[in-house]
Amino acid sequence: MDYANRKRPAKRTPPKNTKKAAKKPAVSWWVVLLAIVLVSGFVWLLVSISGKSEQAPQQQVPVDVPESQPQPVAEPIPDKPEERWQYIEELENQEVIVDVPEREVGPPKLMQCGSFRNISDAEEMRATIAMIGLEAQIRTTDGSNGVWHRVILGPYEGRRAAETDRHKLQRGNIRGCQIWNWN
To answer: Residue ranges of region Disordered (predicted)?
Structure first.
């Protein structure tokens, strides 16, 4: 059976000549009575609970301790002795020597953010990078597959400086910049 093409059933309308039935009350009297009993029971429960917390606490009767057991006498606590630390005086005149290896500096880095066939596209990318606050260069290369206009930034002394500028470009919605060794 095809439910998508099936016709909708006709709406039934009540006959116009019938008399309207008398409206019954929405809530019967026994439901109202039950609600009143439940609410009054809840109120009584709250009042009885709150009455118990206001009662005065009962006094406890002291227990007689037999006199045959002597009470322990508390000895006075001696004064705290003054501590003398030796290492403070020993370390005042000491010098700490730390051996930090030299960081090897690799070749300088460059970052390429685009390579275009049209010089106008490369100029547009360079202008966008200039609006972010960085200076880009356009290098034109003529290879076996035609003329390419590369938009590059650099040289950078290390990868960390190049990564810093790449994050600035990413915040400016320029993605896809690659960091390479300077040629």
So the answer is: 1-20, 56-78
Distance, in Å, from the CA atom of 141 to the CA atom of 28, rounded to the nearest integer, reads 93
The residue written with tokens 């409206």 in the block is 23
Please give, one letter per residue, the 3-state secondary structure of 120-145: HHHHHHHHHHHHHCCCCEEEEEEECC
- For 58-104, the pLDDT digits (tens) are 666 666 655 666 677 788 888 888 877 777 777 887 888 888 888 77
Q: Give the chain's domain count.
A: 1
Domain with residue 176: its CATH number is: 3.30.70.1070
Range of the domain at 155: 112-181
The pTM (predicted TM-score) of the whole model is 0.45
Residue 68 structure tokens: 């045959």
Burial string for 23-33 (b: 16+ CB within 10 Å, else e) reads eeeeeeeeeee
Residue 80 lies in a domain: no
Cβ atoms < 10 Å from Cβ of 147: 12
Residue 139: inside a domain, yes or no?
yes
Residues 158, 106: contact at Cβ < 8 Å?
yes
- Give helix then strand counts, H and E, for the chain: 4, 4
Question: In this structure, is residue 68 part of a structural domain?
Answer: no
